[in-house]
Amino acid sequence: LIAVAIHPARLTHEYVSKSEFFAVNIPTAELLTAVHRCGMETGRAGDKFVVAKLTPVDAVTLDLPLVGECVAHIECGVIGRTSFGDHDIFVGTPLAVSALDEAFRERWLIEVDAGRVLHHLRADHYAALGRGYQARYDEEE
Length: 141
Hints:
globular; Pnp Oxidase, Chain A; alpha+beta
């Protein structure tokens, strides 16, 4: 399952509420400026793809655009919705998933640039994956 939190005043909230679908586009750190611009601009004032200089591409199963420059995409159908604080949480089940071979082969390849996916922390602060860890434990514990 995938959950996304969207403020009710956002155009995205309107789109997801009406269509009951959403997509998660997975960017890398090199898309930082474009990602931040998309978060700061409203789709009501113009085309975010044009403003952020991104390329819309057709989704595999849904009638919505994906971001061509992203290394992976998860297309979801909404199966639940709840309010939490000042946001609504939409829970979706994946309907289609795609990823570049350079970024994903049975796991995220975070040791290569294509696998260093960008994470929004708050406001204008972001982080990217850079090192993986594997947990191990003694089975007799």
